[in-house]
Amino acid sequence: MNSTAFSRKAAELSKQLRLDQFPVYVHPSVFTPAELSKPTLVTYGPGWKNQPTSFDPECLKWQTYLNILAYDYDIVYSNEPSQSPDEQLPYLVTVEKKCLTGEKILKYAKGQDPEKYAPEGDELISGDDKAFVSLVETNIKVATLFYFWCEASNYSEQTFEKYTKSYIWPLDKLIGYKMRSTVIDFLLTKKPILLKEEIYNEASQALQALSNRLGDAEYFSGEKAGYLDAVVFAYLHTILAAPLPNSELRQIVQQHENLVKFAKSLWEQYYSSN
């Protein structure tokens, strides 16, 4: 049978079986994402006492840095990290519908207008700032996580509610238990034994170093705020703003007047008008 005859036979068979009637009906899309006019940062939130600042320090760090860059973006509060590409918040949804996390957020922002958004050059941070960012994201981060998740009264009365309020019972209990276990597992990679006194003492030393570095200056990064300022602010504001029943870490921060003044100054500059 030549190809012409085969095609004719196939067409006849298709008609007999009524294959030409399929699909009978094509259902419309259940959900079509809206077109974005500008990038959208998805974070935990709103903040303590409904402040525009995220209550999560990692989210607040990127939120603040984009504000420092005067970057034009929208913010969406969503306490559901599983929708993120790496199951962590925050993430930035670009107008091209890409989802970016971590330093990819900054690289995208810089790529939009290198002269405006990359005053520090290609590197995210450079020089002495790297050491202080590391200091914050080790000693102070460990203390902050311990303060919110391992201090029993803080976890049960505030942290649990903030991170799980979008879930119904008993799912909220399961999600809270999982999140707390994840935090504790992370802390154990930094400290084989979680000793409260040691953790807070190391945080106190880190805060003293930051206080010495800041001195009477307005910013850590020079004449204008930079990435280090966003990192420090994220942790200071989170600690100072959270109405936790156990306020031990807050009291340690409050011993450094210049750090408290710094945190208030950045909040007034980048959030008080929101």
TrEMBL record:
Record-annotated Mitochondrial outer membrane transport complex Sam37/metaxin N-terminal domain positions: 59-180
Compartments in which it is found: Mitochondrion outer membrane
Keyword Manganese in annotation: no
Alphabetized UniProt keyword annotations: Membrane, Mitochondrion, Mitochondrion outer membrane, Protein transport, Transport
InterPro entries tied to this protein: Glutathione-S-Trfase_C_sf, Metaxin_GST, Mito_Protein_Transport_Metaxin, Sam37/metaxin_N
Domain Metaxin glutathione S-transferase: 203-264
SUPFAM superfamilies from the UniProt entry: GST C-terminal domain-like
Organism domain of life: Eukaryota
Similarity section: Belongs to the metaxin family.
Name used for this protein in its record: Metaxin-2
